[in-house]
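Our collaborator T.R. sent over the components below with a one-line note: 'Predict the complex.' Nothing else. No constraints on interfaces, no templates requested, no preferences about which chain binds where. So this is a plain run: every listed entity goes in together, and whatever single assembly comes back becomes the starting point for the next discussion.
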Amino acid sequence: MAMRSQVYEWANLAVAGSSSSIRRVASAVQVQIPADTSVDIFIGGYGNNITKPAETTATQFVVIEDVACSPAYGGAVQVRINTTDYFQNPDVTVQNGIPGLASPYPVGTSSDGGTTSDNILSSFNLYPDVYVLPGQTWSVLYKPRSTVWGIGASSAAVAAFVKYTLYDGPDALIANKLLEMGVTVNPNNVDWYKRTLIEGGSQ
Amino acid sequence: MAMRSQVYEWDAGRSGGGTLSFGQKYSIFIGGVGNNITKPAETTATQFCVIEDCAVSPTDYGTQSATAIGTDGSNGPRAYGQVRINTTDYFLDPDNIGNDGIPGSASPYPRSIAFQPSFNLYPDVYVLPGQTWDVLYTHYTGTVSVTATGEHQAFVKYTLYDGPDALIANKLLEMGVSVNPGNVDWYKRTLIQGA
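Returned assembly:
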């Protein structure tokens, strides 16, 4: 299993009295996220987190294929590789990233957290994909334009989602080779390269 | 019928329901809740299984004041489906710890206008001859003592290759070719043309 489709889902839900928890927990409550605050969905200290930053080892290659978030509260998601934000304004200044209205999670959710019955569909497709090379650190940052209130009468839950493919071992080497060749890194092309190696070896 | 498209649907409310504790993983095949089968899902020495889709009950997130949004801001069971091959979980967090799997919000079952998929299980998951596989359902909100149908559901779609087609599937795997019915047929044609 050297190529694996992977998913990660984050929500501003954590144990009562704490702003974050490692992994998901039962009986979680909403955590307040201040307006215009970028939250790393892996280790940002809000909602469900993991134990260390997302990073690739020397024998791994990650291809990020989709990112999405709740469209309510003006939420947007940014992809960061090492210290560089992927999405930029035309004048090369910082922006919030992909709006949840363009890439909603879940697809079909309402634009304002459920008070209206519109169903927001995707108008964004992350293509070309984002490559995370061996040894790089990556993160996905969720940023709301207005405050997402924690537990209480106005509380709300928001979520973000990332889908990526992890290439490990020999397949990561092939992914690097494809990158050098200018060929898109996807499972089909990795398989194609393996076939050419096999055919070359059998001649 | 050596290549067969197969589906399995699980509903925790069927067969008298049962108890689904928060945060616990339940096998949709032999987990003891809802409709189950008689033994774990496994491939024999002459079978090859390709899991192509997995989906579970979806959840929406929103403001607590909105209709149907619960006190934790979720509308749905916050359910996830993990694929396990032998004892290995397929979906991992970036820190290499097994996670709960595919969120129902990303791969909803059933699909609707309000819940559409944003996840596609590609590349597929291969279950090689002699392996045991499972789909594990986990949820974090909603009903614990399940008696009604429709709240906790899971669905898995897979293709079962049997006999000679399983051998061809293994050969394709060695060659680095995706195992799907089209490629199995292609390999058969090359064998016939070569003869």
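Summary for T.R.: The radius of gyration of chain B is 19 Å.
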